[in-house]
Amino acid sequence: MMQENKILKQPGAYVLLIELDKIYTGSVGSLGEISLAAGHYLYFGSARGPGGLASRLKRHVRSDKKIHWHVDHITLAGKVVGILPVVDGRECNLCDLGRKMANLSVPVPGFGSSDCKSCPAHFLAVHGGGVEVLEALAVEIKEEIYPAASFLPTTAAQPSTV
Ligand SMILES: [Zn+2]
Q: What CA–CA distance (Å, rounded) separates 41 from 24?
């Protein structure tokens, strides 16, 4: 896993599987007030800055971040349960694949796609299955799913007992 995380220093795209255990209602930036049913959602993003995929994914799983992107509202209200990183990938291509899957739909037009002129949103609702849908996408593109925990900051070392 260490070796794999090193590979993820590269830029690319990713899919987050997010679980909401209860309904979410709140104001999400330019989208205004939105409401999402409890369940699973996929978010499609990209990381092209320094630190690549690994640093972006670490931010997504953190619970103490300042809200910057639309999806931050949802990762804070719910939790990231699976991550599909794609080195050199494009989030729009991944989102297109997702939209072709029968059990996914666009819950909030424009969510996560302010900078995109081709996708209706970079955020899809999953109707039935959660991890299974992410797995199907992973198989389709021949990439591996990572548990969210693999991007959590390492906990401080325990002092040894004297
Ligand atoms: Zn797009």
A: 12
